[in-house]
Amino acid sequence: MSNTPIERNAAQIARDVNARTLSAAEVTEAMLAHVDAVDVAVGSYLTVLRDQARQAAARVDARIAAGERLPLAGVPLAVKDNMCVTGTRTTAGSKILEHWVAPYTATAVARLLEAGCIPVGKTNMDEFAMGSSCENSALGVTRNPYDLSRVPGGSSGGSAAAVAAYEAAIGIGSDTGGSIREPAAFCNLVGFKPTYGRVSRYGLIAFASSLDQIGPFGRTVEDCALTYDAMGGHDPMDSTSIDRPLETTAAHLRSDLSGVRIGIVKQFATSALGAEIDAVYAQAYRDLKALGATLVEVELPTADHGLATYYLIAPAECSSNLARFDGVRYGLRVDGPDVNDMYERTRAAGFGPEVKRRILIGTYALSTGYYDAYYVRAQKARTLIAQDFERAFASCDLIACPAASSPAFQFNAKSDPYSMYLMDYYTIPMSLAGLPALSIPCGWVTPPGGDRPMPMGLQLCAPLFAERPLLAAAHAYEQKTKHALKHKPTLTEVVG
Ligand code: GLN
């Protein structure tokens, strides 16, 4: 495998393709062959875009031959299946959209293709991005490439598994309450959620519109930075996209943390997570200090209300957003004697149990008589959480904490919805506050009942629009610790 381009990082592939020592066509053929070999076992992709990938490779090679330089020349890209790509099935992991073909391409994807990416395929996900393990997909099972008996995380688990299993060099996902950061932590990747509004949501199937944000997965910080730089920035097609110049990041990565104050959150003490995990985070904080950072204790007193707040706001928005799937305009229709009956049958057959639960909770929370008690109070709590972060950032530049409370768990381990919701404990507060945050590999633990080490993620979070110092610091930490390189995915098992 090491003689083929598939194990190379995006930055290396782009360098080689721009230098014409490697063609996009070669990368693409190697990647498609690798996907054929491993994806039966991993299950990253719902649709492999063979024709589009080959056509894109030919276009990239022609542009390079004509003298252009492209920041992501020939870089294989995995796209979460809630993002539209013209002419491709775009399912959101749901039966209701199982056969729906997108008539246009999401801005984020279009920008990455323009920058030279090769679209390898559309990746599995929890239905409508609701979940933390990919087990809520109605259309397929995705396995963690580091232990096939474990989940890849969710909801963007397919994109994470694809990058971890070398079935793409980079991936994109959407993060509403942790759906990039948690699977990145589970799959030994860097996963980055930019500031809300930084990457256009045009062409992203909406879950909770005040929280949804597209971001990259990479095996390195640099790859995430290149991807973010290429897809970020204002888009008039998304009214929530921020009209403010993008601060690019890839040229500003650092190798130390001198002068950086990093907040360690008092309320996020890791001692309750078990000795082994506690030790991983204690070491991570020591490493930040050894790189020159000053550690300061900060408080997020209302962060503990994040889960309850999120699980009102997100379902409320989802109940409204998903009203459009009624059998009339998009996807599945199950006919009945009258139109109401048709709506009911379509939605009963098309949505899975978690999506139905969220629609019910959201509809209830928004209904007359309950609106003030639930939705309005949740919005007030959201403001308090954002104010907590503002106060904390008065005394620090970045905040460090876990990305998830455990490594990847086994299939069917979370039998009730609440235990699955708890997986988002550390990622939701940042989402509610709209802040940029990422997960970066920070160590390995062997989970109880497991027989091999699994990766853990350190979450770093920055003030609004501080993507540049955030990625710069993450790069310094990555270069010093190199945790991601300590173990390989179990691909030998996969390919035999
Ligand atoms: N796990 C969370 C949920 O189920 C977050 C999902 C996400 O970020 N899309 O809502």
Structure description:
This protein has 496 residues and is α/β, with parallel strands linked by helices. It has two domains: 5-260 and 400-485, Amidase signature (AS) enzymes (Alpha-Beta Complex); 303-382, no CATH class. The protein is built from 16 helices and eleven strands. The protein has helices spanning 10-18, 24-42, 50-65, 107-114, 157-164, 181-186, 221-231, 275-290, 306-321, 339-350, 353-366, 372-392, 417-421, 428-433, 467-481, 491-495; strands at residues 45-48, 76-80, 118-123, 170-175, 190-193, 213-218, 261-265, 294-298, 398-402, 437-445, 454-461. The chain has an eleven-stranded mixed β-sheet with strand order 1-3-2-4-6-5-10-11-9-7-8, with helices on both faces. Strand 2, helix 4 (107-114) and strand 3 form a beta-alpha-beta unit. The mean pLDDT is 96. Glutamine binds next to loops. Residues 129-132, 155, 175-179, 207, 314, 424 line the site of glutamine.
